[in-house]
Amino acid sequence: MPPTDAKQSKQPKSLTYAQSGVDIAAGDKVVDLIKSTLRRTHGPRVISQHGGFAGLFRLDYDERLFKRNYKEPVLVACTDGVGTKVKLAAELKAYKTIGIDCVAMNVNDLIVQGAEPLFFLDYLGLNKTDPELTAELIKGIARGCEMSDCALLGGECAEMPDIYQAGDFDMAGFCVGVVELSRAVDPMRVQKGDVIIGLTSDGIHSNGYTLVREIIDHAQLDLTSKPKQLAKQGSKLTLGQAIIQPTRIYVRPIMRLLNRYRVKRVISGMAHITGGGLPGNVNRILSSNIDAKIDASTWTVPPLFDLLQAAGNVDRDEMYRVFNMGIGYVLVVRPAFAQSVTNQLKRYGEQPIVIGEIVAGSGQVQIDS
Question: Sign of the CA dihedral 277, 278, 279, 284?
Answer without folding.
Answer: positive
